[in-house]
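Reply to thread "Modeling small-molecule complexes from scratch"

Following up on the discussion above, here's a worked example others can learn from. I took a protein sequence and the SMILES for fe (ii) ion and predicted the complex. Inputs first:
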Amino acid sequence: MEKETLLWEVFVRSKNGLSHKHVGSIHASDKMMALNSARDTYTRRNEGISIWVVPSHLITASTSNDISDALANSENKIYRHPSFYDIPDDVGHM
Amino acid sequence: MSDHLFSSILELADDHLILGHRLSEWCGHAPTLEEDLSLPNLGLDLLGVATSLYSFASKLDSKCRSDDQLAFGRLEREYKSCLLMEKPNEHFGYTMLKQLYFSTFMEMFWENSLHSKYEDIAAVASKSVKEIAYHIRHSGEWVIRLGDGTKESRNKMLEAIYELHPYTDELFHMSKCSKQCLRDGYLPDRSKLRSSWITRIESIFEEATLPFPTISYFHAGGRDGIHTESMGHLISEMQYLQRAYPGQKW
Amino acid sequence: MYTQGLLDHSEETEETPEFLAAFQKRIDQEEKIEPHDPMPRAYRKTLIRQISQHAHSEIVGMLPEGNWITRAPTLKRKAVLLAKVQDEGGHGLYLYAAAETLGISRLEMTEQLLKGEAKYSSIFNYPTLTWADIGAIGWLVDGAAIMNQIPLCRCSYGPYARAMIKICKEESFHQRQGYEVMMTLAEGSKEQRDMAQDALNRWWWPSLMMFGPPDTESSNTDQSMKWKIKRFTNDQLRQKFLDAAIPQAKRINLTIPDKNLKWNKKLNNGRGGYSHGPIDWEEFWRVVKGGGPMARDRLRARKKAWDGGKWVRDAATAYARKVKR
Ligand SMILES: [Fe+2]
Ligand SMILES: [Fe+2]
């Protein structure tokens, strides 16, 4: 039985100054092949100048519960937002 | 001046067209889906270079043929590509090895053409040098994996080397027109690239655990239009529409 | 698109009425569903089926057009066609990846296709006989596909929607290049005009069939609409296609092969639209069930590529293992 080749996640920096962004996945047997395939698959229309490939199984992900807990927590902390503070208009932009 | 330059550009253009054509045969039939995207990328780069070269040649042509007429309108004996280009894709290993042989040569060829006295050549050289580094990487990485992969893949690579290596020497031959172009400072001396080509291929073969072969007889003839039998079939297919409906717009 | 690693969570959901109602509420609020979100089993199953069929269609769809790459008539057409067919391969790749987020591997999907168990768009089981077929496919088949795909960019399942956005961006040149091929032929010699008309005659009805059976007979539409996997019905999409394609044919003086074609003022809520003659659904079902003229050839070609490439994939795997050691 043939086994599936490794799945990789591909991240592309579209230009300097921007961070790498997830663009999709590819299958490849090793990192060099993954990089080549990522290039040929995801940068055919000048989409990027730098590529990261990461084996999908090495990504650690939060569960939806972790996130919703964090969300509920931060919703309580309205003092983190600038609109929480009353500053007179004549102080000007701040 | 234009005759020998015209012929030399045509030699180069034919190399790129015929090899690009062979690569395009893979589209939809590659060993992996990822490779189904990679092979056309290589092919498109080669077709792009061929198109530029045919249009330069067209400007110099005493018969005023267009780029498409040059690409699709000649007879078998008038194509001047090296025999290596037309060799069929017996299997994926053939294609990658051919690509490695050609790209390794062309990288050096274009590097030596960056300061060509003929501006069009210098321009296409600087564009190609960038593309070709990837071609070498892509085909080289595959040759390494196929050579040092399984017993089956190694045997298939040995077969490909045995079949294709005898066609590599033609890359370094200087035709009459190319000698004239060398004197004029338009194009580099192919024969001087041989030793460093061998060094580069040897080092990739070493990584691939493949032997660099000793060849007793090399084949050549493409530059004189003496091709192998597969060329006629390639051309019949490629020229089908232009021949069936001559002189029409597509 | 997202990782299989993200799928470590259990796929099992308890399908209580409360769970289903809460899920439906998320959908109704236009919330996107992401891979690790709980989802009804049927939603997952429907998506896997639809996305994998879509992916297979892109892959098999490379074959009829690929049939002309080596015979393309000019340097420009050769490059365009090669790039176009390559794009379709990319679409297949993005879609397989989207399906993989639902817990099925690309290998499994490939095997389903090769065993003849999976469906793909049956239009690709017709042969490409002349160069004009390349024009007709780009114009009509890609045109019909775009009608289908644009609403899918808003599909409720995130990875599918994202794949479709990417695909639709790339599709934009496909239909245009096809129409340009047709236009060039239609404005060319008598032989070329005839070639173009012949291709239109052969591809027109299969293109209309691409949207699937009429709404009155389509079984999956209701639930898929509710889950916002689908946003328009088969007939609605077919109507959009018809209204777009007919003026395009007129513009290049080609005749739609339908004697019953009529302008109907009442269609499209009184804005008017074209009504077509009867579609031969018997032919449709015959082709769907594997009776298309090229059906066996298509699978054979895919199998040949896959089996023939096994030694290459094996070598890459073996090498990776060695290097790691
Ligand atoms: Fe597509
Ligand atoms: Fe398309």
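What I'd highlight from this example: The mean pLDDT of chain C is 93. Chain C touches chain B through 48 residues (CB under 8 Å). Questions welcome below.
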